[in-house]
Amino acid sequence: MSKIDEILAKQKALAEELETAKLEERETVLKDIKAKIKMFDFKATDFKGLLKSRVTQKQVDEFLAKKAADAKKAAAPKKPAK
């Protein structure tokens, strides 16, 4: 096994270990966050724009690329049927 293969195997094992640790700690972290939200009287509007609902630049770029491709397709001359 080459050094690269060993490193890739370690990387894969660490990625799996990371996912397991996240799953194990998720519930504890969520309880802590909920307690702090109650303690400081945060409202949903306090988090507006910070959560997953925000559109990323990647999503904007993908949308614009698709729109440009559709426009190019629509502008292409159609071949007459024989």
* Main pleated-sheet profile: none
Structural class: mainly alpha
Shape category: flat
Low-pLDDT runs: none
Q: Report the strand count.
A: 0
Total domain modules: 1
- Number of helical segments? 2
Give me some keywords for this one.
82 residues, mainly alpha, 2 helices, 68% helix, 0% strand
Q: Mind sketching the topology for me?
A:
Layout (H helix, E strand, L loop, with lengths): L2 H37 L17 H19 L7
Protein architecture, described:
The protein is mainly alpha-helical and 82 residues long. It has one domain. It is 68% helix and 0% strand. The protein has two helices and no strands. It has helices spanning 3-39, 57-75. The model has no long low-confidence stretch (mean pLDDT 87).
Briefly summarize what is shown.
This protein is mainly α and 82 residues long.
